[in-house]
Amino acid sequence: MTRYQRSGATGAARTATLDRAVPTASAAACVVTATIPVGSESDAVAANPLTGSVYVASQWADTVSVISGQTNTVTATIPVGNPQGMAVNPSTGDVYVTNFNDGTVSVISGRTNTVTAAIPVGSLPITVAVNPRTGDVYVANFNDGTVSVISGRTGTVTATILVGSSPYGVAVSLRTGDVYVTNFSDGTVSVISGQTRTVTATILIGNGPDAVAANPRTGDVYVANYGASTVSVISGRTNTVTATIPVGKGPVGVAVNPSTDIVYVTSIKNGTVSVISGQTNTVTATIPVGNGPVGVAVNPLTGTVYTANIGDDTVSVISG
């Protein structure tokens, strides 16, 4: 069981203690412009730059809410399994959703907002990432220490890669095609070659590495360390940690805007988003959002940031 999502088939209540924090003086540049009610126990969010739509996974409701980026209203609700993580292929508009208890990945058409496939993967799939250049989809299977590779063309699993203990977050570097997987129980990050589908490096990170995101422009990789309340910065060239940045309590989500090199990190225990400059690796603002923010996503075309708040079943919209 992870620290804020259900265990087993029946589930358990959220366990995080949520403490509100005061924004820093520099937070005025980024403000919450809307708060949108969504489904029960919403903790993952993804933005589709092709349509402007935003997708939110609701664990207890077993649904994905679709939000219009223009009106900030829910326009559709899509039944899936027990959704945990999601990712959008910006080349095709397809949305991939991990169903934690079902052991499957639902594929949603971004054009019709309907489920077009359910693909069996490993045990307790928790997060997913897409390489839009190859169409390959990578799924972290929390329970069996593996990553499933799905072909975006055939919708079938083409490889299963052994990584560390309790793989949690997964991200693709478009600079190199490498895949970065956080191993929550090991305190490490596994680096997978997108070409050979083998682990080429294991990077020691620290206490409870959780979400991970890669900057496609610089190649830098950002890891939210839940247990340490820090973000580790990994150089995509050397696969070494180049900086460690203190953030709010219990960081569990991270997203990058490659146009600005700004990194956004949710802190579930503080109810805030830390804004990090990718150039200086320092926190430049702290923004209060909803209760228990988990997932965070950026629309790279508009710069708008979205957080899924598991404590009050809302999505906060932040101006970029």
Which structural class should the secondary elements be placed in? mainly beta
Question: What is the number of E strands?
Answer: 28
CATH class: Mainly Beta
Rough shape?
A: globular
The total of helices stands at 0
Strands of the biggest beta sheet: in what spatial order?
1-28-27-26
Distance between the termini: 34 Å
Major sheet details:
4 strands, antiparallel
What proportion strand? over 45%
CATH architecture group name? 7 Propeller
- Give the low-pLDDT segments: 5-28
Kindly report the name of the CATH homologous superfamily: YVTN repeat-like/Quinoprotein amine dehydrogenase
Mean pLDDT: 91
What does this structure look like?
The protein is mostly beta strands and 320 residues long. It is built from no helices and 28 strands. The chain has one domain (39-318): Methylamine Dehydrogenase, Chain H, CATH 2.130.10. The radius of gyration is 17 Å and the shape is globular. Mean pLDDT is 91; it is low at 5-28.
Features:
320 residues, mainly beta, Methylamine Dehydrogenase, Chain H, four-stranded antiparallel sheet, 28 strands, 49% strand
In a nutshell, what does this entry contain?
The protein has 320 residues and is mainly β. Helix content is 0%, strand content 49%. The strands form 7 sheets. A 4-stranded antiparallel sheet has the order 1-28-27-26, with no helix packed on it. The protein has a 4-stranded antiparallel sheet with strand order 2-3-4-5, with no helix packed on it. It has a 4-stranded antiparallel sheet with strand order 6-7-8-9, with no helix packed on it.
